[in-house]
Design goal:
Helix content is 7%, strand content 50%. The chain is mainly beta and 940 residues long. It has a domain of 78 residues: Immunoglobulin-like, CATH 2.60.40. It has a 22-stranded antiparallel barrel. Strands 11-16-17-14-15 form a 5-stranded mixed sheet. Strands 1, 4, 7 and 8 form a 4-stranded mixed sheet that branches. Keywords: Cell outer membrane, Ion transport, Iron, Iron transport, Membrane, Receptor, Signal, TonB box, Transmembrane, Transmembrane beta strand, Transport. One of its GO terms (biological process) is iron ion transport. It comes from Capnocytophaga leadbetteri.
Length: 940
């Protein structure tokens, strides 16, 4: 018996020695290209479910034990990731020193080893679709009111447009418009959790943004991601001494690109239109005098640090904005805290995040005439003195309060002040038709990682996202009767949104035989959304006392957009990745279930996808001079989800069971690298087909229903995306140029009815979403561009950085109702030019002609070319000017710098809102603004 025990002990010791012989003690130093040690670099062993690793210390040193033949991934913020193979040699200790090149800030498809996150899943393999990545350094060069503004024109297939509201929201669309009536904007995901309205975030809290192109790249997210996904990773706490970073910027804004207006012909007494005699002295009216210099002031402070096992990141940020229109404002205040706690040698990792955002905005100008000072400003009669309108109110002793003073708009009983548009003093609209809005948002998220074994791990996540919104309308007494009663008008609306999200993802990694490997992810998702909106309004009982109790009881009305909506969805998914040498196969399936909607089908909604990618050089064993890499990929996916529409009421007829809207997507592409990775050339083609779309059709006269929804709509999109990059990374002067181009065509292949009317936008089978029509149904053009181009340049010389962005659009048309009104009121430059010739137009008097011009005369070419952004930065970090400072940089920045070519009377890229039909149409929109300013960054 003793001999057996001794023999067993000997075998165990021998096996242990064999295992220990395979382990290598690896150490080294990680440095920058100039030899400066890099602290805080993540050194991770690839291929393990737990992704174990270490962090470099203050001298850039690291050490760890790892199996021979393993791959170590070195990564940190601001530098490109590097991978190193641990050699299989007899030595027990191995030294591996690494140099990390500086992060490229240009756009191009992510390299094969680049990480991608979908539902929090990290991949380091060849990704079978296109993905673009941007670091925090690049994102912070955009405007402070929205972190995504820096992506404008930088990604092929992604169109980012600023809204006429001036601050906050952007219209972000990817690869065209797919849905006839639903949202066409992309899905935003923050740290693996869906998160709408990214303008609520502080840009300094963002570590990285990744753009997943099209439905193929976002199959695991379901139909909500059919328009593409923008992944946002927030800053992670670092394992180091506490560091503090301060960022402050101040940007000024000025309105520009206003319509061309005349000052030579005035108005008749008592009339608002300027069809009177020629003025002996041209009017001094200048619309720019109404606009003021706006500004954006942003300050953010964050700290990060802690031990190896417990690290914390915390930040506060404040943004204060004054718009170019008087009495407009937008303020945002952020608090963000993130803590990472690692237990049991990193086998358990708890990641907690909490955020709070408070927003306040006042009088954000969209478009239209009501509550918009732009209408009264542009149409102001040229025979009057605009300076007197600045004193927009006069005290009335009899009434006991100040009333609107509107000399030019007073008119007479026989000659009304305007032509029925109910135009008011622009200053009165700005200061006495006040629309304050506030929003409070609370975000809590937890992520728990369990490393079950070297091959198996489990990740769970849970988040709460609650928003509370309040909007008020305050119209003071003496506002025109079209907008308020004698004593004024008040309305108050409140909205709350509660969102819950939970998931659990199991990951298994295995090597079947030799070069054949696979990774499997299986998971379940739960999402719940509850929205409530209600409001009341009416004319006031006592003048200028703005509260619900002061509304005249007989005038009190519920606001029309009341909403009480709840949605619960569940989903299960499976993702498998199989590698064989140089080929990767990716397949996934997702099943969605509606847990609450009475009109949805009770069956599971299945969304499958499959993709294939490979390296051509490795596949065919090619050795082509100058060609470093050539990756090709192809992908097919279907995405669908249970019904989510929330506009049902008793006047709409619905089928008994509605099928899910489904998008089928086909994509193929190639990514190449030339001349030792100095040149990159990339191309992708795609086609999507979105079917089962709800289309409203009229019901027969006398029916109890107004109209019915029929699932008859189908839209096709197809396009091509091209990009090229050149890098010159010499030691002294480095520069990078990146060019992208994209073309998309959409077509309504099925509609189920002759046409659907929507003002100037009509839907007809065979035409496009975004086509323009006149009132007689004549097609005037399309607001969709033929091509979009973007060019970015980045140059570095010693401590200087210089960046520029150029953006271009080719093709498409826009419609300006602003110009129509300028013509009708005789204030456009074209109306003065016609009168100067002393000839009638086509035998028609000028006033009649310009007041009855057909709609097609107000359609303009949308082609434009602009210098979008400039940034000049000096880094003081190489010079020890102040003891204790680790980094100090100063930047001069400018946005929307110069319009190089534009034939339209307004900025064609400016949109009135984020909706599908809010682009390409102008009705007294706020003009474009040009911003310029200074930004300072400190780290100590």
């Amino acid at each position: 018996m003793k001999n057996k025990v001794r023999w067993l002990i000997f075998c165990l010791l021998w096996l242990s020695g064999v295992a220990q012989a395979q382990l290598k003690f690896v150490s080294g130093v990680v440095k920058e290209a100039d030899g400066t040690p890099l602290m805080g670099v993540s050194v991770v062993v690839r291929g393990t479910a737990s992704a174990k690793g270490v962090i470099t210390d203050v001298d850039g040193k690291y050490q760890l034990k790892v199996l021979a033949g393993s791959t170590l991934d070195f990564s940190t913020i601001g530098f490109r990731s590097v991978s190193k193979l641990v050699p299989k040699i007899n030595a027990a200790e191995i030294t591996m020193n690494v140099v990390l090149p500086e992060e490229e800030i240009c756009f191009y498809p992510a390299p094969p080893e680049e990480k991608m996150i979908a539902l929090g899943i990290e991949k380091t393999s060849n990704i079978p679709y296109k993905i673009e990545a941007f670091t925090q350094k690049y994102i912070s060069q955009g405007q402070s009111d929205n972190a995504l503004s820096s992506l404008d024109g930088m990604v092929a297939g992604l169109n980012v447009q600023r809204t006429a509201l001036g601050v906050g929201e952007r219209r972000v669309m990817m690869r065209g418009m797919r849905s006839l009536f639903s949202d066409n904007n992309v899905l935003y995901v923050i740290d693996g959790v869906p998160y709408d309205q990214p303008s609520d975030l502080n840009p300094e809290d963002i570590k990285e943004v990744r753009v997943l192109m099209g439905a193929s790249a976002s199959a695991l997210y379901g139909a909500s991601a059919a328009n593409g996904v923008v992944l946002i990773q927030t800053q992670k706490p670092q394992n180091r001494d506490i560091r503090v970073r301060l960022s402050s910027s101040l940007q000024f804004e000025n309105a520009y690109d206003l319509p061309q207006m005349q000052n030579t012909y005035g108005n008749e007494a008592g009339q608002y239109t300027s069809w009177g005699r020629k003025l002996s002295t041209p009017s001094s009216f200048d619309a720019k005098d109404f606009f003021r210099t706006g500004y954006q002031a942003m300050t953010a402070v964050n700290l990060s640090g802690g031990s190896i096992s417990n690290r914390t990141y915390a930040s506060v940020g404040a943004l204060q904005t004054k718009g170019v229109v008087p009495n407009t404002a937008y303020n945002r205040y952020n608090i963000w805290v993130r803590n990472v706690n690692e237990l049991l040698n990193e086998d358990i990792v708890l990641d907690l995040t909490g955020g709070y955002t408070h927003q306040f905005q006042r009088n954000q100008v969209g478009h239209g005439i009501a509550s918009n000072p732009i209408a009264g400003l542009y149409l102001y009669p040229r025979g009057e003195n605009f300076a007197q309108e600045r004193y927009f109110e006069r005290y009335d002793p009899a009434a006991g309060y100040a009333k609107q003073y509107w000399y030019a708009g007073s008119g007479t009983a026989d000659t009304p002040a305007d032509m029925g548009e109910n135009i008011q003093n622009p200053y009165w609209v700005a200061y006495r038709n006040v629309r304050p809005e506030s929003k409070d948002r609370y975000f809590l998220s937890s992520k728990l990682f369990f490393n079950i074994s070297n091959r198996l791990s489990l990740t769970t996540r849970f988040s709460l996202d609650n928003s509370y919104y309040k909007h008020e309308d305050r119209h003071y007494a003496s506002t025109l009767p079209a907008y308020a009663g004698e004593n004024g008008y008040y309305a108050s609306e409140k909205e709350s949104t509660q969102q819950q999200y939970a998931d659990a993802i199991l990951k298994y990694v295995s090597t079947i035989y030799g070069h054949l490997q696979f990774t499997t992810y299986a998971g379940a998702i739960y999402q719940a959304t509850a929205q409530n909106r209600e409001g009341y309004g009416g004319n006031l009982l006592s003048p200028n006392k703005f509260n619900i109790a002061n509304i005249t009881p007989s005038q009190l009305r519920a606001l029309p957009n009341h909403l009480d909506y709840q949605q619960k969805n569940g989903a299960a998914f499976l993702l498998a990745e199989v590698w064989w040498k140089y080929i990767q196969l990716t397949a996934s399936g997702r099943a969605d279930f509606s847990l609450s909607h009475p009109y949805a089908s009770s069956k599971a909604v299945i969304s499958p996808s499959v993709g294939l990618s490979t390296s051509l050089l490795r596949m065919f064993d090619l050795d082509i001079k100058y060609l470093l890499n050539a990756k090709v990929w192809a992908f097919y996916t279907e995405v669908a989800a249970p019904l989510r529409y929330k506009g049902w009421n008793e006047r709409i007829f619905l089928p008994e069971k509605l099928q899910p809207e489904r998008t089928r997507s086909y994509e193929a592409g190639i990514s190449t690298s030339w001349l030792n990775d100095q040149v990159g050339l990339n191309a992708a083609v795609y086609r999507t087909l979105t079917s089962n779309q709800l289309v409203p059709t009229a019901m027969p006269y006398g029916s109890v229903y107004t109209y019915q929804w029929a699932q008859a709509g189908e839209v096709e999109n197809q396009g091509i995306e091209l990009s090229a990059i050149y890098r010159n990374n010499s030691s002294l002067f480095r520069y990078r140029l990146a060019l992208n181009a994209t073309a998309n065509r959409n077509k309504i292949t099925q509609l189920g009815t002759e046409q659907v009317l929507n003002d100037y936008f009509r839907l007809r089978e065979g035409d496009q979403i975004g086509d323009l029509y006149d009132t007689n149904g004549k097609r005037l053009g399309s607001t969709n561009p033929d091509w979009l181009f973007g060019l970015k340049g980045a140059m570095t010389y010693k401590n200087w950085d210089f960046d520029f962005w150029i953006k271009a659009r080719l093709g498409g048309e826009v419609l300006s109702d602003t110009e129509r009104y300028l013509d009708r009121y005789g204030v456009s430059q074209a109306s003065a030019t016609a009168r100067d010739t002393e000839n009638d137009l086509l035998g028609i008097p000028a006033p009649y002609y310009f007041q009855h011009k057909p709609t097609e005369k107000y359609v303009y070419e949308a082609t434009n070319l602009r210098l979008q952004r400039l940034a000049l930065t000096y880094h003081f970090n190489k010079i020890s000017m102040i003891k204790g400072f680790r980094d100090f940089s100063l930047s001069l920045i400018a946005d929307n710098v110069l319009m190089l070519y534009n034939k339209a009377p307004f900025d064609p890229e400016l949109v009135s809102g984020t909706g599908t039909y809010e682009a390409g149409y102008d009705l007294f929109m706020l003009p474009s603004v040009r911003s310029y300013g200074l930004k300072v960054n400190f780290q100590f």
